[in-house]
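Hey, sorry to bother you again with one of my protein questions. A protein chain has come my way and I'm curious about its shape. I'm sending you its amino acid sequence along with the backbone structure tokens. I owe you a coffee for this, so here goes:
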Amino acid sequence: MDIIISFYNDSIGPFLPKEIFLIILSTIPFIELRGGMIAASLLKIPYLQAVLLCLAGNTIPIPFVLVLGRRILQLLKRNQTTAFIGKAIEDKVAMKSAMVKKYEFMGLFFFVGIPIPGSGIWSGSLIASLLDFSVKRAVCAQVMGLILCISIMSFLTYVFPNLFF
């Protein structure tokens, strides 16, 4: 994360407000809300503002991945050049989808809500798309998951460091 903060401070910081940077950072797969909250604390963004910016950024991909995720994977797999990418993504998602498949709504909620590597909005949306969740049900589970995730990340990035450091 220090590399990302250094990159921001050294190159784009003078041109891009840190709030916009945080929204963009929170939309990136694998970084998402978890990385956004860490970056916000390192950039000294006030807590409430950080929460709102990270949530805003992290919710942007939900409708696109839910609606277009399956179609994009199908297009990738049809083309000989990109078929291996589509297959690799599909296999990775299938591996992670067992809990969601078994527990459905609550599985998706916890998959998005517990901040561990490889889980989050991007993966959760793609899993929901591949498992034919209704958009309404998937969005509801993911928003609830984001609330859990933001609670955990708030403690880890804003509360815990202030208690002990």
